Structures are given as structure tokens and as C-alpha cells.
């Protein structure tokens, strides 16, 4: 079957989709957007969290056919989404995501991510880097989408609020302490900016 | 596999009549797991996402008509006053992402004994609005669950809504899992006080082949509350009454040993939850009484 | 200072590069951070190639059976299927692989030995096509009785899991269903026991833990024009994979080119091969790129787990609290294939005493062959199981003697100079008593944090969002534990790493590039390599080359060894490059300044400077028109094998130590546990990147908590089948289960190690588990000799 929907503000069309395919599979294998991760495919880990019409969901549990005509924001579009939200003072619809044609191994450039200046990261993305919340990084995209949405709803979360909002996102590397730090940092920076 | 995308409820009913083996998919939080793990290959998937009135609810005089696909998050946010037990149960469902997609219709359709909504529905009192091209009917919740992952729907029927009695007293829901979030129930317990009828109702999850009520426990407690004039005098329920209620709730279980817990633990835990939720609801009832009297 | 006032070590000193920004000791940020937060970082499961096929593995549905027949005809007829392969299709005589013992069939031959063993592989144009085709393969099994424990493995009439063993352990094991046995005998435990005023015995059980890395086993094999194959893969050790893969394919190693793709965690679970050979076989058979990605269900069958163990301990103590002796027997279940079992046995036995002084010991550790899931490496590697048992013993002993549990440990704590049961003296700081003092000194978390003005906040209570208690039945408990873990590969293994370092001028700036085959699995090795290069070469710009097999082996990302060994190799190669750079400088500019002739020149801030800070030249000028590149191997001090009868030998390179204090709140009626705090103190020698060090300690601590209260692979003892291969029933701690984890880092240099550093990753996983168990015992008064502890164990309903 064919599915038409919007991803990160850009209309997308996927053809020859098997009816049992998930939104996650279509994003990763058909649209070149592998940022949403395939860690459990049973809704238990949150690594594939995307926003479907603004709502955080597990992309692995959305049938591809269900997204016909709908709007999806993935980690690839998170920076633009956050930027538009900041500019419009509310919910952004998201703009163009990064299209990855070929998946290649990463090659670190001469600089490292000391400042992130000029890279146009969303505040939550920069906070994850700064706080050391990224290790293997497999849980990171889902956590970023979930944390960004929480801060949109609740700009001054308590620790318990953060833990509750992120309880659907498993991380196996960090022990979550640096993730807590990152979300607190993003909230504090968000507060300063206002 | 075929993917059916009805644009309206009528189309959905027609599709289900034409393809009775079609598996309805709304939030996808059960169906997609089975597909991803290759446990199920239905001939047809019947997508209900385009039928927007399934995600709406109406608050009536007596009850709330809750669309089958209203996400748990919405129940938590908007129906805490009318459906406190179900709102509490909704809050224990899996993760925020799942609560954003899943709804009571899915819980009922799957009819797993571990579904979180069941004990709350049983305790509150509810009817399932099932419909087919042949017509619509209301199935009392007590008659809905017929076996492990089986319900009383006909092959051509779909769940449109659930009619749940608005709370006329305190309700509680409690669930045991071996993790502090995102856990499938080892067992669960729902309790609703109904001061208007001077009755209590219970619901037990994951401790029998189907969700069940602890009817003997309810009858015992109804009688004990009546005899002691508790509804009127608002006294603290005596420990012996609470203990007997808990024992009878445990006795209503017919659990199994599985990877999530032992049968013996399930019986024990249901008893503890029964006693605690009785304390919480009764304290809340007493508190509300005092407030009312104070105002009067 | 130690409690008795004695010095416990010296702080680390660094001279070269200590003034260069972004060098060691700073919390520089990950070079892969931006890619990881934007979703662009390409993990092994993200690989994509035009025209690629999808591989699927058919696995055994039973644990132990003869294969009567395999019929692939229907599968082959399926449209979209390009290849179906079984054992008979393997191209060479090499049909097995294995880390140490090549006992693992690439595809089952005649027999399957565990549930989920690969039997056949399929390549098709869509994963669903491949799955449907695999389901059409008919395998006729004749089931055999299952061997599941020591009794069934060593029974007189036991079926041999592996017949005709010819590995180098068969000569010294008491039964062919025992992979390896390591006794350690020192002093005379029998005699010493007579001095004991108190004797404490315990039988302990440790459950099967899964690494549960989030990135599933996956990779892409691309056939090459030269008949070879390019493999993009997530692994812990590229060269070890290569040595196992190439012979099965019948290719020389230089025709199997491996590139590390993004690795979504490892924790030991990627030491063994998973889908590597299968993807290559299918790619070479079909002439098309083949991608394989396990789903979570398959992942539970696709890698080895932590060995479950039965441990019997006896300790004695005098009435003034001194340990007299220790006897123990540790039985590890290795499952159907050897994997890392022999080395796990070596660790479990040699570290079975823990960080304590006991001169008279009688130790035996074995690993079994059974039909249970294969077990091998996981963070902590044999030391975890032992620590759970000996720390429970320490509490029992302290109670018997009537001493404070922490003081009892401190009284018996090892220190620098202590002789291990293997006869090896500990020749660097071992601040065991000090670590305990530090965790005990940390402020306690406040009581009843769940109480708020709006009633109980269930998120802060046992049961969490499930709303099981508003404070009823909740009792607080506190527990302590400390552990010892070896760092690096032990027992005489030639444990080396290779680093290629290049220095040149790019765009007028001096730039260093570092190329190793080190598997970055999330630990932050790439961050540290850049820091080392900055420190050693005094440059700002460092490029980290992707890891592949075009450079020599970096050894495994295991055993807390990478910063030590590959970090050491990077440091060593940088030093060699620095000498070359200075040679060039002397040649070009030596006549301009007499200081060039003196020995102590440093590279700092992009310049050659004297020890006093005088600038002699810009590196850009020195290197103009020149480049320096050196690839060199680097080794830590050699180790020795343990004697097979006495266990004596200098088997380990370095030890690392961590201590925990656990504070738990237990709903004693429902048996639910909330861990409130896991405070940790650890000696890291030198924190090359303090933020990464904290990340390792906190992550390791939480994995230790997982096996204390929720994580366990449950195997049916009647069928040897796995009952919970999913994240629905194998529970990992969520952020709402996670306590605060305050960390106190001690930096006492190990003079034998680069920069004085000490491997960090594993030690916190050891003591976390027994600390949590001790705290639960403290809250409940129960004995709890098994981990994980489940609600039924706390409520008498097991």
C-alpha cells in the first residue's frame, strides 16, 4: 500500500508498504530517517518516540497505514521544531528534517561538541551533550523527543515530574543521573531565556 | 494482509461484517506488538484511527459515555472527578507514550486478565456499547469477560464506547508490579464506594482467568457497613472487618504461577490491596462527610 | 589518609601537556555527541544499501534435540527469497567458532544444544518475506533429556553436551560437562578454622542477568568485487570477530574488511559473535548486500548472558573480628557453549575472597556445560557473583562477632601490599577501608520524602505510579558493600592494543589524528583518545578515525581495560610521534636556540616549548611540508596463568575497588522495594574525563541494582526454554526506579598504569547488588540468599 504523510514539515510518500509495517520501519527503512531507534519494538523502551500530531508515541506501535495524512516529528526535525516553537511562542509544526540517503559510519571532525554553536541544536539536545547524558546514545533520540515535549507542557518540572514523564524511556548506560541533570539544565536555560 | 481504513463508523461496521476475522487496531499497543514479534498475522487490519468520535466522551447525568479510543492520558486529565478509579488505573498503564495511544476499547477487545482498566470498570459499574451492522447493544461489564483473552463480542461487532457510572463516592485502584513504572500487572485491585446505594463494588485483575469481582467480599462488607451503621455514623471501619474483607477478596482469586509472580503471592497481594484501598476510600468518604456536615 | 593515619597512595602527576586545553583531566564533551543527539549517528541497525537483502535466522524451538531432518524446499520456493542456507551449505571445513574454544556451530549440525540455537538462515527482499520463508523450513527434532544443573550435568549417565572434546581444559576437569575448573589453595583453611570463634556458612544463588544493551544485534555485509566482504558491525572487538569469521568464510583476513558502526551498548554481550558470519555467508552466496537486525525477542537468544551461579561459602572469625579462613565453592552455569566461561571461572575463583585479608583459603570454581542459554561475558565477569556472596557473609560474620558491619569490613580490608589468595601481592593503592569510610560519611537522604502537602506522592514510594501504598508497611533499610575487580585481560593473555597516530599541518594548523580499532560502545573512549592526543601533542585539533581492521587490534572493550590499554597505546604512539616531531624541529631549527639541544622539550598550545615555558617554535612551522605517522602496539605488564592445582600465579594486572551504601524503602507487606539512594565511592587512579567517570559509575551501579530487585532471565528447569525473552517480562530499571547516585571519586595513582589511571567500568556493578540486598535484609529481617529478590521472597509466598 501507499502512505502519504508529513515528516518534520516535509510531505513524504512511501510506496509498496507491507500492511504489517510500523511507522518506525517506514521512517527508518523507507524514508532514510533512522534517528528513531528500534530497541524493543514492543513499546517498552521509548527509543522510537516521535510526535504524532504533536503527541509523543512509540513509532513501533503505530501501523504505517494509520499515519496517512498525519504529521510526524522525529529527532531529525527536533531542532527545527524547537526553533519554530521558540519563534512562535507555542507549538511548532516543524520544518525540514535531515534526509539521510546513505547510512555511513560516523567520522568525528576536528572539533568536538564543545559548544554546539552554529549547529542549530534544540536546547534539550545541547543540554544532553553538556550534561554528559549521552553514552551509547541509542536511547537518546526517544528521550529527547519525550523530554522536549515535557518541557513544552511543564517548563518547571520537579524531579518526580521528570522521572514520571520519562518513565517510558529506558536507558541502559547512564543510570539516568546525567539525564536528570540534562533535563534540569534545559529547564533552567529555558527559564533564563524567557 | 490487508489494511482497511474506514472513514466512518458505518464503514467500519460494514467492513467488520464483511471480514469478521479483521482485527481492529486503534492505539496499536497490543496488536502491533503481536505483529512485530510475529505472533500474529491477521488477514485484515481494521484501522479505527480515522473515526474521530471514538476519541470523544460525553458526561451525562448518570454516566460517562467514553469513546473506545479515548486515550488513557485524556481520562487522567479530564475525567478524574467523574471516573476517579479509571483515572487512577489509566495512570498505571505502561508509559506516557502508551497512555497517549491506548484506550479502554483496546483493553476490552484484548480482554487480557492483566488489562489495567478492567478492575476499575468492574468496581465502578459499566456497560460496553457493542455494535454491528445488525444493531447496537449494551453488554454489562460483569458479563463481558468470558475467558482468558476472550470476551462476549460477536465476530462482526466492534466496541464503540463504554458507559461508566459516574462516581457517587470515593474510588481507588492499586496494582502490583515488580517495577515502579511501566509494568504489567502481577495483580490489581479496584474498589468503589457507592454511598447512594450503600454498596461497594470491587474488581480484581490478573488473578483469575478473567477480571472478576469479589462478590462474597462485597456482600460481606455491604452487610457489615449496614449493620454497624457506618454509612451514617462515618466511623472508622474496624480492623476485623477490613481483615475479613481482605481475606474474602483473596479468596475470590483463582490465580496461576507464571513468570510475573506466584499464585500464592497474587492472593496475598490482592488481600493487602483490598485492605489498603478500603482504608483509603473509607477515609475519603469520612472526610467528605465531615466537610458536608461542616457546611450544613 | 586511611582511618589509621597511614598514607594510602599518592595523587597523580602529569607534566607534558598539562597546560593544553581539552587534555586529560577535563570533562571534554563527546566527539560523537552532536551526531547522537540529532539522530545522524549511524548504528549498525541503521545501515542501508541499495538492493540490499534482509537476513533472517531460524532458531531451534527446543533446547536439546537431535536434528533428524531439515527441509528447506518450501522456503526456497517463496517469491522474494534469494538464499536459504543450513550447515550443509557452509563453504569450508571450519564450521564452528568461539572466543577461546571453537565449540559453537555457525549453524546447528545434527544436534541443537540450547533453546534458540541458529539452525538455518534466509535472505529475502523484505524482512517479512524472510520471516515467512524461515517459518516454512521444516525441522524434525528428536528431543533429548535436558541438562540444567550440576546434578544433571555430572550424573554418571549424563549425556555429554559436547562429545569428543579436545580443548585444553578437558585434561583437568573432573567431568566432560565441566568446561573448566580452577581451585585455589593457600595456607591451610582446615587448620585455620580451629582458630575461629565464629563460623558462618551460606548457600547463595545468583540469577541469570542479561546485558540488555538497547541497540539490537545487527549489521550489514556487502560483497566486494575481489571476492571478499565488507562488514559494518557493532561489536566489542573487531579483530577477535575477524579471527573467527574469516576461516568460516574461507577468506584470508585481509578480504574481510570490518568497520565499526555505531554500537548501542555492549556490557559484554557483544564479545561473542552473533549475526556476523550469517550476514557474510548470505552476502557471499547471493552477491548482494545483506542486513540482519534482531528484534528484542531474538536478541535474548542472540547473545550470551551473565552466568547464573550457586555459591557455598564458609568463613571464620575470631572474637575480636579478624577473619580466620574462607572456603568456597562456586558453580557457574555456562550453558550450551563455552564462550568466556573459562576466564569467568578464573575471575570468580581468584576474586572470591573479596577485598579482604584472608591467608588460609580453600576455593573451587567451575563452569558447567548444560542445555541452558550460553553464558559468558557481562560487566563484572565472575566477580559480581562472588561479591554478592562474600558480602552477605561479611554481614553475617559482623553480626556474629557483634561488630558494626562497616567496621568489621574495615578491620579486615586489604591494602597495598596485601597478598591475594593467588599469591600475588597488590602493588598499588587498595583503599578499601577508606572507600567504606567515605560512603558511610555521606549524608543520609531525608526520611519520608513521599510526604507532601497534597498527600502521599506515590512516585516516591515503593510501587510508584501503581499506587500500592501511601506509606503503609514501608520500612527503611541501609546496607553496605565493597568489591574488588581485576582490570584488563588476565592469566597470561597477551593483552595489547595498537594505536596509529599521525601529526600534520592542515589549513595552517597542527592537527593530530588517532586511528585505533577500539570499539566505542558508549563508554567514551573516543573522547579520552582525543584528550590524550591533546595532552601529549599539545594541539587543539584532534581527529578520531573510525575504528576498523585497517589498523592493528585494540583488544576488547571489556574488562574495564580500554582507557588503560588502548589509552596507553594512544599515549605511547603520541610519545613516539612527539619524539619524531622534536627530531624534525631540531633538524630545522636546532641552530636557532641552544634549548633545542636540551632533553626536556614539551609540545603545548601548538608550540614547542621548554620545560620553563619558553617558546621555541610553532608546531605549524616544524611540521610544514612534513607529516609524522606511527602505528605501534602497547602492552601492560605481563601476567601469568593460575596453577591448575593450587591457583597460584600473578594472574592479574590491576585491581579496582568500589564501595556502596544502599538506602531502600521496602513495602514489607507487598514485598515491593524502592531504592532511595545508592551512594558510591570508587578509586579511579586518575579521572581522565571526570564526567565520563561519573557516567560509568552511575551506569554500573544501576545495572547492579537491576539484578538485585528485578532483572532475571527465567529458564524453565524442565525444558531449558527461556520463559521471558522480552522487555515486558525481563524488567530493566526505569528512571522512576532509579535512586539518586551520589559519587565520591578518589584518585590514587597506580604507578604502573598510564597517568596512574585505574579501570572504572566494572567495579561499581559489583558492590551495588549486595549493598541493595543488605539494605533489604536490614529493612525486613529476612535472610535472602538469592538475587534478584522478588516480592514473593519478601512475603513468604514464593
UniProtKB/TrEMBL annotation, chain A:
Gene3D superfamilies: 3.10.20.30, [2Fe-2S]-binding domain. It comes from the Bacteria. Residues 1-78 form the 2Fe-2S ferredoxin-type domain. Keywords: 2Fe-2S, Iron, Iron-sulfur, Metal-binding, Oxidoreductase. Signal peptide: none annotated. It holds the Pfam family Fer2. PROSITE patterns: 2FE2S_FER_1, 2FE2S_FER_2. InterPro entries: 2Fe-2S-bd (IPR002888), 2Fe-2S-bd_dom_sf (IPR036884), 2Fe-2S_ferredoxin-like_sf (IPR036010), 2Fe-2S_ferredoxin-type (IPR001041), 2Fe2S_fd_BS (IPR006058), Beta-grasp_dom_sf (IPR012675), Diverse_Oxidoreductases (IPR051452). PANTHER family: OXIDOREDUCTASE WITH IRON-SULFUR SUBUNIT, XANTHINE DEHYDROGENASE IRON-SULFUR-BINDING SUBUNIT XDHC-RELATED. This is (2Fe-2S)-binding protein. It comes from Streptomyces coacervatus.
TrEMBL record, chain B:
PANTHER family: XANTHINE DEHYDROGENASE SUBUNIT C-RELATED. It comes from Streptomyces coacervatus. The keyword RNA-binding does not apply. Gene3D superfamilies: 3.30.465.10, CO dehydrogenase flavoprotein, C-terminal domain, Uridine Diphospho-n-acetylenolpyruvylglucosamine Reductase, domain 2. InterPro entries: CO_DH_flav_C, CO_DH_flav_C_dom_sf, Diverse_Substr_Oxidored, FAD-bd_PCMH, FAD-bd_PCMH-like_sf, FAD-bd_PCMH_sub1, FAD-bd_PCMH_sub2, Mopterin_DH_FAD-bd. This is FAD binding domain-containing protein. Keywords: FAD, Flavoprotein, Oxidoreductase. Coiled coil: none annotated.
Automatic annotation (TrEMBL), chain C:
Residues 1-27 are annotated as: Disordered. It holds the Pfam family MoCoBD_1. Residues 38-145 form the Aldehyde oxidase/xanthine dehydrogenase a/b hammerhead domain. This is Molybdopterin-dependent oxidoreductase.
Amino acid at each position: 500500500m501507499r502512505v502519504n504523510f508529513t515528516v518534520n514539515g516535509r510531505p513524504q510518500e512511501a510506496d509498496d508498504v507491507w500492511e504489517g509495517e510500523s511507522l518506525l520501519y517506514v521512517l527508518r527503512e523507507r524514508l532514510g530517517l533512522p534517528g528513531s531507534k528500534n530497541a524493543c519494538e514492543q513499546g517498552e523502551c521509548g527509543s522510537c518516540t516521535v510526535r504524532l500530531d504533536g503527541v509523543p508515541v512509540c513509532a513501533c506501535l503505530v501501523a504505517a497505514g494509520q499515519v496517512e495524512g498525519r504529521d510526524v516529528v522525529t529527532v531529525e526535525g527536533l531542532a527545527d521544531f524547537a526553533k519554530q516553537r521558540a519563534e512562535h511562542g507555542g507549538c511548532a509544526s516543524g520544518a525540514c528534517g535531515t534526509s539521510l540517503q546513505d547510512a555511513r559510519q560516523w567520522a568525528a571532525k576536528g572539533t568536538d561538541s564543545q559548544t554546539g554553536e552554529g549547529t542549530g541544536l534544540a536546547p534539550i539536545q545541547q543540554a544532553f551533550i553538556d550534561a554528559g547524558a549521552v553514552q551509547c546514545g541509542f536511547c537518546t533520540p526517544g528521550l529527547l523527543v519525550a523530554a522536549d515535549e515535557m518541557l513544552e507542557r511543564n517548563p518547571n518540572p520537579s524531579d518526580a515530574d521528570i522521572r514520571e514523564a520519562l518513565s517510558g524511556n529506558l536507558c541502559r548506560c547512564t543510570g539516568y543521573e546525567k539525564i536528570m541533570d540534562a533535563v534540569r539544565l534545559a529547564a533552567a536555560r529555558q527559564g533564563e531565556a524567557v | 494482509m490487508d489494511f482497511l481504513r474506514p472513514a466512518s463508523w458505518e464503514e467500519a461496521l460494514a467492513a467488520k461484517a464483511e471480514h469478521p476475522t479483521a482485527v481492529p487496531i486503534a492505539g496499536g499497543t497490543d496488536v502491533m506488538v503481536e505483529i512485530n514479534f510475529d505472533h500474529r498475522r491477521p488477514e485484515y487490519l481494521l484501522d479505527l484511527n480515522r473515526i474521530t468520535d471514538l476519541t470523544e466522551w460525553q458526561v451525562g447525568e448518570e454516566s460517562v459515555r467514553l469513546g473506545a479510543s479515548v486515550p488513557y492520558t485524556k481520562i487522567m486529565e479530564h475525567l478524574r472527578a467523574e471516573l476517579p478509579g479509571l483515572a487512577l488505573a489509566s495512570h498505571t498503564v505502561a508509559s506516557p507514550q502508551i497512555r497517549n495511544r491506548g484506550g479502554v476499547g483496546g483493553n476490552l477487545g484484548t480482554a487480557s486478565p492483566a488489562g489495567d482498566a478492567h478492575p476499575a470498570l468492574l468496581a465502578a459499574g459499566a456497560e460496553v456499547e457493542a455494535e454491528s451492522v445488525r444493531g447496537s447493544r449494551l453488554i454489562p461489564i460483569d458479563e463481558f469477560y468470558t475467558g482468558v483473552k476472550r470476551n462476549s463480542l460477536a465476530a462482526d461487532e466492534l466496541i464503540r464506547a463504554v458507559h461508566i457510572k459516574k462516581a457517587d463516592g470515593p474510588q481507588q485502584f492499586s496494582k502490583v508490579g515488580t517495577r515502579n513504572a511501566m509494568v504489567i500487572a502481577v495483580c490489581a485491585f479496584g474498589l468503589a464506594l457507592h454511598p447512594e446505594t450503600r454498596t461497594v463494588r470491587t474488581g480484581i485483575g490478573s488473578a483469575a482467568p478473567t477480571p472478576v469481582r469479589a462478590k462474597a467480599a462485597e456482600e460481606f462488607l455491604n452487610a457489615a457497613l449496614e449493620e454497624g451503621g457506618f454509612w451514617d455514623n462515618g466511623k472508622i471501619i474496624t480492623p476485623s472487618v477490613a481483615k475479613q474483607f481482605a481475606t474474602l477478596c483473596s479468596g475470590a482469586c483463582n490465580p496461576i504461577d507464571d513468570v510475573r509472580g506466584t499464585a500464592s503471592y497474587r492472593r496475598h497481594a490482592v488481600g493487602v490491596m483490598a485492605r489498603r484501598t478500603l482504608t483509603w476510600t473509607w477515609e475519603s468518604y469520612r472526610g467528605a462527610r465531615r466537610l458536608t456536615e461542616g457546611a450544613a | 589518609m586511611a582511618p589509621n593515619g597511614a598514607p594510602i597512595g599518592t595523587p597523580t602527576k602529569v607534566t607534558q601537556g598539562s597546560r593544553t586545553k581539552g587534555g586529560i583531566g577535563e570533562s571534554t564533551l563527546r566527539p560523537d555527541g552532536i551526531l547522537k543527539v540529532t539522530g545522524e549517528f549511524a548504528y549498525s541497525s541503521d545501515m542501508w544499501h541499495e538492493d540490499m537483502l534482509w537476513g533472517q535466522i531460524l532458531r531451534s524451538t527446543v533446547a536439546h534435540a537431535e536434528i533428524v531432518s531439515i527441509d528447506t524446499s518450501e522456503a526456497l520456493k517463496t517469491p522474494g527469497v534469494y538464499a536459504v542456507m543450513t550447515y550443509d551449505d557452509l563453504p569450508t571445513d571450519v564450521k564452528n567458532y568461539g572466543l577461546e574454544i571453537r565449540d559453537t556451530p555457525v549453524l546447528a549440525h545434527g544436534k541443537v544444544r540450547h533453546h534458540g540455537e541458529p539452525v538455518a538462515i534466509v535472505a529475502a527482499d523484505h524482512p517479512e518475506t524472510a520471516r515467512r520463508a524461515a517459518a516454512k523450513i521444516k525441522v524434525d527434532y528428536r528431543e533429548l533429556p535436558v541438562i540444567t544443573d550440576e546434578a544433571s550435568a555430572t550424573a554418571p549417565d549424563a549425556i555429554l553436551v559436547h562429545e569428543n572434546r579436545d580443548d585444553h581444559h578437558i585434561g583437568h576437569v573432573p567431568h566432560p560437562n565441566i568446561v573448566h575448573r580452577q581451585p585455589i589453595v593457600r595456607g591451610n583453611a582446615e587448620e585455620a578454622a580451629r582458630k575461629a570463634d565464629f563460623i558462618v556458612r551460606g548457600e547463595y544463588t545468583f540469577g541469570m542477568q542479561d546485558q540488555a544493551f538497547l541497540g539490537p544485534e545487527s549489521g550489514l555485509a556487502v560483497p566486494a568485487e575481489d571476492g571478499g566482504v565488507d562488514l559494518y558491525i557493532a561489536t566489542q572487538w573487531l579483530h577477535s570477530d575477524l579471527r573467527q569469521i574469516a576461516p568460516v568464510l574461507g577468506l584470508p583476513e585481509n578480504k574481510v574488511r570490518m568497520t565499526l558502526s555505531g554500537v548501542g551498548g555492549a556490557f559484554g554481550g557483544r564479545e561473542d559473535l552473533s549475526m556476523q558470519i550469517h550476514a557474510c555467508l548470505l552476502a557471499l552466496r547471493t552477491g548482494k548486500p545483506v542486513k540482519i537486525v534482531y528484534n528484542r525477542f531474538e536478541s535474548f537468544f542472540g547473545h550470551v548472558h551473565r552466568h547464573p551461579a550457586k555459591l557455598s561459602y564458609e568463613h571464620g572469625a575470631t572474637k575480636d573480628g579478624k577473619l580466620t579462613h574462607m572456603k568456597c565453592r562456586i558453580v557457574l552455569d555456562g550453558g550450551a557453549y563455552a564462550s568466556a566461561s573459562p576466564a569467568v571461572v578464573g575471575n570468580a575463583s581468584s576474586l572470591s575472597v573479596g577485598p579482604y585479608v584472608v591467608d588460609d583459603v580453600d576455593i573451587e570454581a567451575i563452569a558447567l556445560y548444560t542445555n541452558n542459554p550460553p553464558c559468558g561475558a557481562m560487566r563484572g565477569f565472575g566477580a559480581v557473583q562472588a561479591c554478592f556472596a562474600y558480602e552477605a557473609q561479611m554481614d553475617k560474620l559482623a553480626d556474629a562477632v557483634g561488630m558494626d558491619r562497616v567496621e568489621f569490613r574495615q578491620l579486615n580490608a586489604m591494602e597495598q601490599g596485601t597478598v591475594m589468595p593467588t599469591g600475588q601481592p597488590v602493588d598499588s593503592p587498595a583503599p578499601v577501608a577508606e572507600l567504606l569510610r567515605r560512603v558511610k560519611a555521606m549524608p543520609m537522604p531525608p526520611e519520608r520524602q513521599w510526604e507532601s502537602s497534597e498527600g502521599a506522592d506515590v512516585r516516591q514510594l515503593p510501587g510508584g505510579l501503581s499506587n500500592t501504598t501511601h506509606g503503609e508497611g514501608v520500612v527503611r533499610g541501609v546496607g553496605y558493600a565493597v568489591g574488588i575487580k581485576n582490570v584488563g585481560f588476565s592469566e597470561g593473555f597477551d593483552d595489547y592494543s595498537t594505536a596509529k597516530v599521525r601529526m600534520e599541518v592542515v589549513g595552517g594548523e597542527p592537527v593530530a589524528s588517532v586511528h585505533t580499532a577500539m570499539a566505542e560502545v558508549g563508554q567514551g573512549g573516543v573522547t579520552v583518545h582525543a584528550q590524550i592526543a591533546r595532552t601529549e601533542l599539545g594541539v587543539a585539533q584532534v581527529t578520531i578515525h573510525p575504528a576498523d581492521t585497517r589498523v592493528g587490534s585494540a583488544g576488547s572493550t571489556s574488562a574495564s581495560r580500554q582507557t588503560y590499554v588502548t589509552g596507553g597505546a594512544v599515549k605511547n604512539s603520541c610519545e613516539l610521534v612527539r619524539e619524531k616531531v622534536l627530531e624534525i624541529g631540531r633538524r630545522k631549527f636546532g641552530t636557532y636556540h641552544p634549548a633545542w639541544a636540551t632533553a626536556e622539550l614539551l609540545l603545548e598550545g601548538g608550540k614547542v616549548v621548554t620545560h620553563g615555558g619558553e617558546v621555541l617554535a610553532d608546531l605549524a612551522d616544524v611540521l610544514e611540508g612534513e607529516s609524522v605517522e606511527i602505528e605501534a602496539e602497547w602492552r601492560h605488564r605481563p601476567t601469568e596463568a593460575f596453577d591448575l592445582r593450587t591457583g597460584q600465579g600473578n594472574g592479574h594486572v590491576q585491581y579496582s575497588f568500589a564501595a556502596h551504601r544502599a538506602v531502600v524503602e521496602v513495602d514489607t507487606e507487598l514485598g515491593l522495594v524502592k531504592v532511595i539512594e545508592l551512594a558510591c565511592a570508587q578509586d579511579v587512579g586518575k579521572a581522565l574525563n571526570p564526567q565520563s567517570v561519573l557516567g560509568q559509575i552511575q551506569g554500573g551501579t544501576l545495572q547492579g541494582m537491576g539484578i538485585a530487585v528485578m532483572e532475571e532471565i527465567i529458564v524453565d528447569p524442565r525444558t531449558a526454554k527461556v520463559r521471558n525473552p522480552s522487555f515486558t517480562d525481563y524488567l530493566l530499571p526505569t528512571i522512576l526506579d532509579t535512586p539518586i547516585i551520589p559519587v565520591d571519586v578518589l584518585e590514587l595513582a597506580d604507578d604502573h598504569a598510564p597517568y596512574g589511571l585505574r579501570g572504572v567500568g566494572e567495579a561499581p556493578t559489583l558492590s551495588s547488588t549486595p549493598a541493595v540486598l543488605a539494605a533489604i535484609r536490614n529493612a525486613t529481617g529476612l535472610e535472602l540468599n538469592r538475587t534478584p529478590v522478588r516480592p514473593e521472597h519478601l512475603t513468604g509466598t514464593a
